[in-house]
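Service request form, structural biology core

Requester: graduate student, group of Dr. S.
Request type: structure prediction, single chain
Budget code: on file
Notes: please return the result as structure tokens.

Sequence provided:
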Amino acid sequence: MSLRPSPTARPFALRAIPRIVPALVAIVVPVVLAVGASHFLLSRTVDRFHGVMDRSVALLMPLSTLRGHLNATVLPVHDRIEGIASAADRLHMAAAQVDADLANADLLTVLRALDPGPVAAVRREWETARDAAFALDTGPAAGREAAEHAFDGHLHQAVADLDVILGEAIRDLGTEWRRAGDNGSEHLAVFGIAAFLAIVVALGAGGLILRLAGDVQGTEARYVALARLDPLTGLENRQVLRRRLEEEITRSERFERPVSVLMLGLDDLAEVNATRGQLAGDLALAAVAGMVGTNVRAIDQVARYSDSAFAVVLPETDLGGACVLAERLRRHVAEHPVHLGEGEPIALTLSIGVAAYPSHAGEADGLFAAAGEALHRARNEGHDRVAAPAAEAPAGA
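Core staff response, request fulfilled:
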């Protein structure tokens, strides 16, 4: 018998090919589809989140810069009132920065990123405040006093109008963020179905999905922090504090409990910036924020209110108790010199305005304004002191 293979016989590998190829196709095709679908759907989800973040930076950064420059005009105006020679030049520089920021805001209205009406309102209030500031050194004393009050009132209104724009922008961006998350959930559901078909051979994709999900969650956490916190001091911002004060006033009305506000201004911050540099000024603000935060109660809320001022909401505290706390904070800061980088530690001082609900105002903005007026009074009386508003608000105000 011949031992040669039959010419019609084929090796096992060749005979197995018709079976192996369909099996490989059945495995590979679902995997390829699942990977392709996951890449497409997850890329679209992440792109949506990145788009919201990009719009957040493009919108919130110029508005926050405008707000900071508006507040920065206060110091040169008050220095001008006190007759400091360099105040006029600094006022012109600050006003030019605000005008440039408003031009950027106008560009955002042209691009339909902002409603032109509220931006025009901010511009009108600023231009009126600017004209009043430039008129401070002309005319009789009564006219200069009227110009000072006009500047303070219109600047405060411009900042308040800008805060409304910022609040609406943050709410709109938050809505976009949630919509992106909702669309992302739908995409992930579709991806789950595709991944189920290839679960045995596509387990490695799980690590990629978890990493992408972690990136999205980390981005969302950073976005939430950006909307709540001041990046320099780590304190919550003015909008968060305003909401807290509104809640405390509502509770005070319901249970007839006291609530007060402190407005703390860091004296001579401009001098620190001028003599030791902007970094030293930032260190001074951060150091004072830390001292204030560690010397109030757990139920009190501290926030950065403006470039050189902090505010504290004091639940369950009447005017007398607020003045006692304000004096303790003033003394603590004065007795603890701060290291500002190189050189000797520097002694810092606070001027503090105190206002109480309902004695000085009947709503949140009015109470902040009353505390700000008291802060202005403390500075006019010589800095490093505590002051309350000159008079109580009329009943029902």
